[in-house]
Specification:
With 416 residues, this protein is an alpha/beta fold. It is built from twelve helices and 20 strands. The protein folds into two domains: 271 residues, UDP-N-acetylmuramoyl-L-alanine:D-glutamate ligase (3-Layer(aba) Sandwich); 123 residues, 3-Layer(aba) Sandwich (Rossmann fold). Strands 5-4-1-8-9-10-11-12-13 form a nine-stranded mixed sheet, sandwiched between helices. A five-stranded parallel sheet has the order 17-16-18-19-20. Strands 3-2-6-7 form a four-stranded mixed sheet. The longest helix has 18 residues.
Length: 416
């Protein structure tokens, strides 16, 4: 491995390489934003150099990844590589060791084009003609730090919706994108909106990019894949931001469904059929008494309560109005609780049912919703096949993965 140097390269990826662990579904991989993006861009036939920092053990692993995916890695040594631990793909990760407030590692990068991610362990100075910047910090994102005497002829930001709202100081992501572009003199701003696709602001024009209805969802790293393809197409090859973002959205869909790298280039061809349906979704306004989602679940022990809280948080984070009997009605007599829950089902667009344990009340709610024609997504991680017969037979969408259930519910909640 080489130390980070000053030789100009075709495409530089600047970002961290981290160990990523997930409990459900179980996964233990070493990628990080930098490693994953370098593999994606190199897989598109673009000479790619990754600039990063890692400990000795991770450096050896990264050397193998670089050889396999045909990119070059230039690594500065640090004592310990950071580890991200997730309960599930939408949970806030536990980062170990604790992130130091004083980041001392610095290095310079010179390239024709660069994809720059926010890093925990370094503050690199990047000099490039075209830069794509992804801050990777929804809590306190910062604008790209232009090095002294350095500027790029073109720059674009790729943000998630939380980062866009904070940087743009606006609740509406379209307005936030415009403010960010004008304030920072950017060519383009792309805002990723999870199950709702993406928004592109380019030359005063807004365009919505669709998400795709995949069969399963593996979200960890999907934003890295999106940013990588956007950087390859817009930053290196000079495509318009809207077309680059359309290809990036396809790449992210392929990744979340298959969890495989690199991304096949034919999957990005907008003139070819794609195995997943494009979803041009909008969250339509609700009447005051209506809900996007009725969250049916038992809450009688700590495990049930934890899963209920995680599901409610994930749905609300996606902008959905959720009715939860636990939170919105609470405990009470049968004559007090049941009519309120039934009325809420009648006024909900869809239902997410957490059915492990086969709680009688939850199963009744599922049946009542189906009798009204309301779509039901049933999360069953550890329930045998036989007890699911009536649930599947009544047209419920039964999934075994938490994140997939959340996304499927989000899509079902947005219907004409």
């Amino acid at each position: 491995m080489q130390s980070a140097g000053s030789t100009e390269v075709k495409c530089a990826v600047v970002g961290g390489v981290y160990r990523e662990l997930c409990r459900f579904p179980r996964s233990d991989e070493t990628w990080g934003s930098g490693g994953r993006a370098a593999a994606v861009i190199a897989g598109l036939g673009i000479p790619t150099v990754l600039y990063t920092a890692a400990d000795l053990k991770t450096t050896a692993l990264l050397s193998s990844l670089a050889h396999t995916f045909q990119f070059e890695a230039r690594t500065d040594q640090i004592p310990v590589t950071y580890r991200f631990q997730y309960d599930h793909g939408l949970s806030a990760p536990l980062i170990w060791p604790p992130v130091s407030e004083s980041v001392s590692l610095r290095f310079d990068v010179h390239a024709e084009s660069a994809l720059v991610f926010g890093m925990l362990e370094a503050t690199p100075q990047v000099f490039a003609k075209r830069i794509v910047y992804d801050p990777q910090n929804p809590v306190s994102p910062a604008p790209f730090a232009v090095p002294p005497g350095g500027c790029s002829s073109a720059m674009a930001y790729v943000l998630n919706s939380a980062e866009a709202r904070k940087l743009g100081q606006a609740d509406d992501v379209v307005e936030a994108a415009r403010m960010i572009a004008e304030t920072n003199d950017l060519e383009a701003v792309v805002v990723k909106c999870g199950p709702w696709g993406a928004v592109v602001y380019e030359n005063g024009r807004n365009e919505r990019i669709p998400a795709y209805a995949t069969h399963s969802i593996w979200p960890i790293g999907s934003g890295d894949v999106f940013a990588a393809v956007f950087a390859a197409r817009w930053g290196v090859q000079g495509l318009p931001a809207i077309e680059a973002a359309e290809q990036a959205s396809r790449a992210a869909a392929q990744y979340v469904n298959d969890h495989i790298l690199p991304i096949p280039e034919e999957a990005l061809d907008l003139n070819r059929d794609f195995p997943f349906k494009a979803l041009k979704l909008r969250i339509q306004p609700l009447d005051d008494s209506d809900y996007h989602v009725y969250l049916a679940a038992p809450f009688f022990n700590i495990g049930q309560s934890w899963l209920l809280e995680e599901a409610r948080l994930a749905l609300r984070t996606m902008g959905l109005k959720v009715f939860s009997p636990c939170h919105d009605v609470g405990l009470g007599s049968a004559h007090d609780v049941a009519p309120k829950d039934i009325e809420a089902i009648r006024h909900s667009r869809t239902m997410l049912a957490l059915i492990d344990g086969l709680d009688a009340g939850t199963i009744f709610e599922v049946g009542y919703a189906r009798s009204l024609g309301i779509p039901v997504i049933a999360l069953a991680q550890s329930t045998p096949e036989e007890p699911l017969k009536m649930i599947k037979g009544s047209g419920c969408n039964v999934v075994s993965d938490f994140v997939t259930g959340i996304y499927q519910t989000s899509w079902a909640a947005q219907r004409e």
